[in-house]
């Protein structure tokens, strides 16, 4: 049975944890940046459950836990710099990238990610995936990140597809909520990787 049903006119893929196994890269970048900023160790398990969140959503949680304001711009800059230095460790999630390759040129396709354009573009480009997609939408393009539907609605508009005709591939709870709120069907890629 095909995941892409008849009548689907556009495919939208999340990046991190969906197309690209970048979560270890994000975890290491964030943990290093946070430790440098707050002056204390951060346990690696702290990052679990924060995948799929925007940088500012993660920092909201950090500030709440610490009970103080942190240097958001500094932490974000340091985390991104750390991630970009380690692109060589990136791997495709082939069960998903195979789908993107199979539909390249057959259906319009977009990436819609809560990541920054800087990091998302670097990850996709490093693995040669960027050329598969007609449009790349990131946190930099919308006012409200996932779980708001804004990113997916912008992707559908950019692909000239009605939201109800788009199929979203996602790994995070926030992303699946955003797809539902946008009126789009979605595939939980975690079920494909089992």
TrEMBL record:
This is HAD family phosphatase. GO terms for molecular function: sugar-phosphatase activity. Coiled coil: none annotated. It holds the Pfam family HAD_2. InterPro entries: HAD-like_sf (IPR036412), HAD-like_SPP (IPR051806), HAD-SF_hydro_IA (IPR006439), HAD_2 (IPR041492), HAD_sf (IPR023214), PGP-like_dom2 (IPR023198). NCBIfam families: HAD-SF-IA-v3 (TIGR01509). SUPFAM superfamilies: HAD-like (SSF56784). It comes from Komagataeibacter xylinus.
